[in-house]
Structure formats: structure tokens, C-alpha cells
Amino acid sequence: MVEIIVVVIIIAALAGLILPRFFGRVGSAKQSIARQKLAEIEKAIDMFSYDYGRLPVSLDELVNRPSDISEEKWNAPSLRAKNLMDPWGREFVYQQPGEHGTYDLQSLGADGQPGGEKENADVVNW
């Protein structure tokens, strides 16, 4: 019985040391994924602007044909709708014209609020 208790204590101690490090890396991994997705969306916006001579009004125009673009001119989108979602399941925030450039693109981080630190920090294109 004593041996079992000792083993349980050792397992609990190891879990106490390992789990916080693991969960800390999950947050930073999602930040990295958000930066990668943001770069993909920026490329898609640039291609859209090059193809149609204007910026998209919304990110939805990157995956669905806008009404002012004919079917003959419409190029198949390079993104899927799921690529417009950040790792926390929210849409990236797109503002055109932007306050920091031609357009602003951002993810509000884990908390969904502007600002924050670590996994709650915003991921932005400026």
C-alpha cells in the first residue's frame, strides 16, 4: 500500500512539473499559427488587389465571388473559409481602409479582446 502511495505521489509531482510547460507551449503554438494564417490572408488580399484592381470589402470576398466581378474574370480562391478563422475559432478582424496601413488585419488572441500579453496578445499585420 505504501508503495502505491509513493508511486502516486511521484506521478503527481511529475505531472505538476510537466503540464504547465505543455500548456504554455499550446498558447505560443496558437500564436504562431495565427501569424502564419495572417500571412496567407495578406497574400490572398494582395492577389485579389492585383487581379481586380481593388481591395476586398470583406474577407468573405477572398472565398466567395463578389457581385461586381463577373464569373469570367473570377479566379478560384486560394483560400478556404476555414482559413479565415484564427486558431481560437474567431474570424480575423479586417479593416479597409486601415488605421495603420492600406488595410489592417488582426487576430485578437486567446481572450478575444484588444491588447493582452502572451497567448492573449493580438497578432497584427502592422
Describe this structure in words.
The protein has one helix at 2-52; strands at 93-95, 104-107, 123-124. The model has no long low-confidence stretch (mean pLDDT 89). It is elongated and about 75 Å long. The chain has a 3-stranded antiparallel β-sheet, covered by helices on one side. The protein has 126 residues and is mainly alpha-helical. It has a single domain (2-124), classed as 2-Layer Sandwich (Glycoprotein, Type 4 Pilin), CATH 3.30.700.
List the helices and strands and how they pair.
Elements: H1 2-52, E1 93-95, E2 104-107, E3 123-124
For this entry, give a set of tags:
126 residues, elongated, mainly alpha, Glycoprotein, Type 4 Pilin, three-stranded antiparallel beta sheet
The proportion of strand residues reads 5-15%
The run of helices and strands is: HEEE
The overall pLDDT average reads 89
Distance between the termini: 60 Å
Q: What shape does the CA trace take?
A: elongated
Give the spatial strand order of the biggest sheet: 1-2-3
Radius of gyration from CA coordinates: 21 Å
Which CATH-level-2 architecture?
2-Layer Sandwich
The number of helical segments is 1
CATH superfamily: Glycoprotein, Type 4 Pilin
How many structural domains in the coordinates? 1
Contiguous runs where pLDDT drops below 50 for at least 5 residues: none
Reported for the largest beta sheet, the result is: 3 strands, antiparallel
Structural class: mainly alpha
- What's the total count of β strands? 3
Multimeric status of the protein: single chain
Topology-level CATH name: Glycoprotein, Type 4 Pilin
